[in-house]
What does this fold into?
Amino acid sequence: MKCYWTARAAVAVAVPLLAVALFLAFSQHRETRRALSVLGAILGGLTILLPTRLIGVCQHAGASCNLVMKPTLILAGMLVIAVALASLVVVERRPAATG
It folds into this structure.
């Protein structure tokens, strides 16, 4: 039953992550982009923590949640963190807009 709740929680993390990505794509202000990048990294960390520490997955080693869902969520979380940190670096290196 852990797999069911982990999947539900993953959807609950994915929805705000999608909103963060959309806002980040259309934001113009440097401070907003910085805050959204940090929020994206936090949501990526939560994605990793769901199957590993917070809820977990089935104990059965051959279950699809252990073979597919857990590695996928970990990889997706790492990818989200990497993209968020890259966005943060781009925001910090870009000169501030004047006017």
